[in-house]
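sry for the spam today, last one i promise. struct tokens for design, 315 residues
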């Protein structure tokens, strides 16, 4: 970060354990807030930081309203770190922690709307890479991919804005990065169809509050595993997941990747489905819940907070 100064001011518990809040002073003297994501698996040796800077240059080229922008690379206590644009919100992981604590589900419509924006972000980023649906195999260029849009990688704020983070730079032949539990598809590739698998897993986790099951290499066993997951989705409290929602999750988590819809089609179908749902949408649930969840995260004893929008109320 030549000619810029970064000062850490505290932990950002509303996202996760490796996130810091910071104040960034630019070369022109202007100051802004920033988020810093410490990468515990990467050291801060010169060679590591040089490679990360190359990757960050490509990641910084992403300009999309649903993607958290990468700005710089830095080092924090011997570990490499990414400097990210400021965002005053929470991760879905933290939201789910509170909902589990209180025994409440995320409203179905809010969940569908969030995942639609995640699918939109994945499509916007991955559609420009070498994995296009008309290509039999990727070429050798570096490309931006996502190992799985788990709740820890999705941020929301009180205005109903959604930001996806966790994109990486990947070159065919690289070792596939680890995905969150239940988000790695059977084929283990980094194609858009693999991203679709993660979209379905995310929606299932938001609706059930439970981790999606690990994929099975055996097609028959995989089908059985996903069927049990769908049964749990249909049994969720509050507004029942419609047959269309359940079938879309099933299609997105099929064993054969090319039988899954691409993220662009997933996003369109999810937006259509959201319009037919009657539980609170993100524009209602976000302002009512996100500030309260942020306050709850900062409280060491984690007390229950007053109920917000009813699960069965109109959007």
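last one done:
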């Amino acid at each position: 970060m030549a000619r810029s100064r970064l000062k850490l001011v505290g932990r950002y518990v509303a996202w996760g354990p490796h996130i810091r809040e910071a104040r960034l002073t630019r070369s022109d003297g202007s100051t802004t807030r920033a988020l810093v994501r410490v990468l515990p698996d990467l050291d801060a040796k010169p060679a590591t930081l040089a490679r990360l800077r190359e990757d960050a240059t490509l990641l910084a080229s992403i300009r999309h309203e649903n993607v958290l922008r990468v700005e710089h690379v830095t080092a924090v206590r011997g570990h490499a770190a990414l400097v990210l644009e400021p965002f005053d919100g929470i991760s879905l992981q933290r939201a789910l922690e509170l909902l589990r604590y209180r025994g409440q589900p995320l409203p179905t419509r809010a969940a569908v709307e969030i995942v639609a924006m995640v699918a939109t972000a994945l499509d916007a980023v991955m559609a420009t890479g070498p994995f296009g649906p008309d290509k039999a195999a990727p070429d050798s260029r570096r490309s931006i991919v996502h190992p799985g849009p788990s709740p820890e990688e999705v941020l929301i704020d009180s205005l109903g804005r959604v930001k996806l983070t966790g994109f990486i730079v990947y070159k065919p032949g690289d070792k596939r990065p680890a995905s969150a539990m239940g988000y790695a598809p059977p084929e283990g590739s980094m194609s858009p169809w693999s991203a679709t698998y993660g979209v379905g897993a995310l929606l299932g986790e938001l609706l059930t509050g439970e981790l999606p099951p690990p994929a099975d290499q055996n097609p028959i066993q995989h089908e059985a595993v996903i069927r049990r997951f769908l049964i749990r989705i249909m049994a969720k409290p509050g507004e029942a997941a419609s047959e269309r929602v359940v079938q879309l999750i099933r299609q997105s988590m099929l064993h054969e990747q090319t039988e899954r819809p691409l993220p662009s089609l997933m996003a369109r179908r999810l937006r259509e489905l959201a319009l037919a749902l009657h539980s609170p949408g993100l524009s209602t649930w976000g302002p009512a819940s996100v500030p309260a969840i942020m306050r709850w995260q900062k409280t060491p004893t984690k007390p229950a907070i007053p109920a917000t929008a009813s699960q069965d109320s109109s959007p």
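The mean pLDDT is 87. ok im logging off now
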